[in-house]
Design goal:
Blueprint lengths: L2 H15 L1 H5 L5 H16 L17 E5 L7 E2 L12 E4 L29 E5 L7 E2 L12 E4 L9 E2 L2 H7 L2 E4 L1 E3 L4 E10 L4 E5 L4 E6 L7 E2 L4 E6 L1 H12 L4 H9 L4 H10 L6 E4 L4 E6 L6 E2 L4 E6 L3 E9 L11 E6 L7 E12 L5 E9 L10 E7 L6 E5 L4 E2 L4 E8 L2 E6 L1 E6 L2 E6 L6 E5 L1 H20 L10
Antiparallel strand pairs: 1-2, 1-3, 4-5, 4-6, 7-27, 8-30, 9-24, 10-19, 10-23, 11-18, 12-14, 12-17, 13-16, 14-15, 16-18, 19-22, 20-21, 20-23, 21-22, 24-29, 25-26, 26-27, 28-29
Length: 483
Amino acid sequence: MSRTAILAATLVALAAGGGGYLAGREEARLPDLVETARASFQQWTGGARPQEATAAAATGPVVYYRDPDGKPAYSQEPRSTPDGRAFVAVRASEDVSFDDEPEPEPASNASTDNPAGARRVLYYRNPMGLPDTSPVPKKDSMGMDYIPVYEGEAEEGNVVKVSPGKLQRTGVRSEPVEQRVVSRPVRVPGTVQLDERRVTVVATRSEAFIDKVEGVTTGDRVRKGQPLVSVYSPEINAAGAQLISNPGFEGSRRRLENLNVPPEAIAEMERTRRVPMAVTWSAPRDGVVLERNAVEGMRAGPGDTLFRIADISTLWVLADVPEYDLSSVRTGQPVSVRVRSAPGRSFVGKVALIYPQVSKETRTTRVRIELPNPEALLLPDMYADVEIATGAGQPVVAVPEDALIDTGARQVVLLDRGEGRFEPRQVKVGTRGNGFVEIREGVEPGDRVVTAANFLIDAESNLKAALQAMASAATVPNEGQKP
């Protein structure tokens, strides 16, 4: 229903519904009712003033009668002025116009001498926004007039013009394009693991018997060189005796080294010129005892693990990144890790490795993060919440996410050209994050993009393009032909 029809219906309702009211009172109350209705509609439309329609174009039922001199005098029934002139009948199509700027009556296409300032009608478009045009005036199936499109309204390609009143009512807002750092954190679960390069096993390379085990148990922290276990090995003693009897023979020393005898034990044999009954094995590095298998009196074979020690000053966090986020993860990116045992505290590391395989079951890829652990607060197999800061560290051209119209097949922003003119611009997007989208092609810093009501303007732009395409195929009436 058009706005004029709404006003007409309101006035008719005032007249019909107030019949009983007016019957007992003077007819002078009708002008007040009409003025009230007109003022309410002017306030609703932002102060738009009524526009007179020509008598020839008047359609619809008679709504009321007005003073022929334009005075604020109205009547429900036909009447005359004191000097005998009849009041003018006002029909439904003649009253209020809700356009922001009244448009002049279209000059006839048949006239060759249009008056100055008159615009020629190019074609008529469907009032309901359907992709249907006509070279001559017509009505749709509901009796609504097709809307004329005047010369000059389609001269700027895909630029859409919006009147100031519509801009205010639809709440159109725009913001400048700027360069900024765009990052989107990837949050994934992970687990704390030992650094494989910092794990050491204490073992012999010959048959041996455990003579003595120091008071070191699983979980204890040890320092490099700290005694762990003393073992007796007939093969080691035989090689030590050969070293003492032939001090210049290099082969005897090399044999002890091949049996993994500690260097300090070999040096002690050379200095004292005697072979000890049991050789002491010491901790090869600072760390935590993860495993103790040595028991006094036991027999150990070559390669049997006596102690397993790990350095936990640096740990790994293994995180499972979904396949769709993998393209934004790079080695060297900073990572924030939180564990449940230290609430409110985060540990900072970096991406060290992206494993070259995707899990078939979970469609994730494992990412290794190196994390310093100087206070030993992190322990192996802890659960971790991992946040990877993806995106470029340098500022890039970016627009607010609300400015991007993404249909999947295309990405478009609306440039604000000022004075109510807007231009759709197709763009190529990059990283998204922090409420912004990187624009790799299509806009430059300083351009203004629409961030609110952009879907309405885009829809009007698409409609305009469709109408122009259809109008190019339509036949415009010749100047000698009357519509």
